Amino acid sequence: MGDVMRAEPDCAGAEKISELEALKRLLFAPEIDRLAQAEQRVGALDGRVGSSDRFETAVAEVMVRALQRASGERAQDLSKALGPSLVLALFHEARLSRDNLAEALRPVAPQLARCARACRFQQFDNRVARLFGARESSQDSHYSPAQVERVLFLERKSGLLIANWRRGGAASDNADLISGLIAAITGFARDALGEQSLRSIDFGGRRLYLRMSDDLIVAAETDAELAPEQETALSGRFLELLLHQGGAIEESRLAAAAGAISSARPRIRTPVSLRLAQLAGVIALVALVGYGWRTGVHLRHERTTAAAVEAFMSEHPESAIMPLGLMTDHGARKVELRVLAGSAAEADALLAVVEVAAGPQYRVVARTSFTSLHSAYKKFEPVKEPDNHRLEGGAP
Amino acid sequence: MTILNQSESLPHKSCSAVKIMLLGPIGVGKTSLLRRLVFDTFSYDYKTTIGVDLVSYDVELQDGRPLRLVIWDTDGDFGESILTSSYAAGASGALVVGDATRPQTLARMALLLDGFERTMPRRPTCAVLNKVDLVAPGAAELKPFGGRPVIQASAQTGRGVRKAFLSLAQSIQRDRN
Ligand SMILES: Nc1nc2c(ncn2[C@@H]2O[C@H](COP(=O)(O)OP(=O)(O)O)[C@@H](O)[C@H]2O)c(=O)[nH]1
Ligand SMILES: [Mg+2]
Prior knowledge:
The complex is a heterodimer of chains A (396) and B (177). Chain A has 396 residues and is of the alpha+beta class. Helices cover 56% and strands 14% of the residues of chain A. In chain A, the strands form two sheets. In chain A, strands 2-1-5-4-3 form a five-stranded antiparallel sheet. Chain A has a three-stranded mixed sheet with strand order 6-7-8, covered by helices on one side. In chain A, α3 (52-73) crosses α12. With 177 residues, chain B is an alpha/beta fold. Chain B has one domain (2-176): Rossmann fold (3-Layer(aba) Sandwich). Chain B is 26% helix and 25% strand. The longest helix of chain B is centred in the middle third of the chain and has 17 residues, at 103-119. The complex binds guanosine-5'-diphosphate (GDP) and magnesium ion (MG). The site of magnesium ion has 3 residues of chain B, from α1.
């Protein structure tokens, strides 16, 4: 059969050769295939016995194929067996070499997200989504970055609005007040906490990103957390705006900044097929499982303490407490709670809750700033009914 | 000079805005005065936390020009430290409130008036004596003090409320010209 295939092509040119090839394929297809397979087997064997280097690569290749197949066809099984460890390890690695990893894993991102979901690692799921630039709970390969809803440009001291842009040209309700409140909150952060430049505020459910100079603040209100690329764009654009000290500023410049931030998507790379070297790296990650699990334990711990704070907040809607941050130093076994509170009792109550959630092995310290708060204000019920006429009709 | 209904807010571009501080000891009725002036107050939870609330109110001045007042209602707990805090920065004027039924609040009112004029030179102030509905006409508390004109007001009846904010707005506008 080998001889038949090696029939010498005559010099009648390339056309003839391809005709001949086609004929051979027609007649000897099974034999050609079998030969090709045999060649491959020999190659593979050679690969495995050749050197330890080659052996590693070959193992990686096999494992990767198995992983790919399993993640596609048997996501449930894979997720049970491997998902958590792999995903955990990936997050660790992602922190170290985000770009490379994202590129290497992009083709299997949906499967990874599915694995994570199947494992009910919701938080990890979101991290997978973010790694690939999608928002919370990625819809597989759908990337929808956060949108800038509004940009405010204001005087830092007085909080007076200099310029304001809103998406879709919507009427600017309360822009003066929001700008005033931004100044009040940043002023408070500086006076009470020594925080020189707040970079974001969770503002009654809205998310505000801030950049400021001594005299000016630029703030963006967004519909979701910005991707890192978007925040980088925001920093650049806002710095430009802040450097423009010339008083008046056109709304169009704010609009341009908003557009640039909204469209600063995480770099979309053309899906490349997984390259061997990168994949060997991925496989090596599986070896990081031990580390990964520890990371997982830490993340769960952080989630538990954060959830305890959240629960406390929703159980005490009347309290004037405002948690500013919860930092866990796992090395030092320390949880630091930064909080604004109306009274020491309030702060202590929250601290107690965090202590329970953090467990006996962690020391919880609170950095509390007290706010001026008086009960008289709270007792005062707002006048609701529109009785403007009484302004005129009052006693002389 | 007419007050525009809050709901008919002027479009931002045509309206310049000024920051006004509302100062005075606890319980003199600052928040009540503001609520009397404006119904739809702006309330995020931050008020109790950061000790300040903001209200905006549009007025039309005598020359027909509109002016937006962004009024910072502070908590009395600040005392005079409010004047050196970041809150007072950039204010164009202050409404300082005392309680006609509590003479000691008048002394603190005088301190705040002096303090504001010292830390924010050439920014107008307006002294307001609130809760006049609770004292007999002609009572000693109603006399002007320190040679300052005082506007008698009552958040309860509405008396003098508009007048106080508008006279401050007018002084600010005069100073700006
Ligand atoms: N009778 C009367 N009570 C008032 C008046 N203004 C305020 N109050 C009451 O005084 C108390 C304190 O008022 P509030 O506005 O919270 O004072 P603030 O601390 O200066 O903001 C509340 O119980 C009000 O109902 C007023 O003009 N007349
Ligand atoms: Mg008040």
